[in-house]
Amino acid sequence: MKAKAEIRLKFSSEKQLKTVSDALSPEVCRPVGGRARIALETEGTCLILKAEAEDTAALRSTLNAFLRWINSMINVVEVLELSS
Q: Are 19 and 72 a contacting pair, CB within 8 Å?
């Protein structure tokens, strides 16, 4: 069974979006497992995650990993923006 998902995340600035997108690109280019693939696109200040997996468990774990990474990066960027 194939499982697919598309998630759109709106960022507060294009700079923040580019930072997150650039940081995730190595993970997209060289995925760890072979059960799921993910693609990143940008549209305005939105990051679009398109995931496809062999099953729902692989889809869920892939999306959870990417969403946790994105959340961590946003937190770091916000702290850096406040300190400058």
A: no
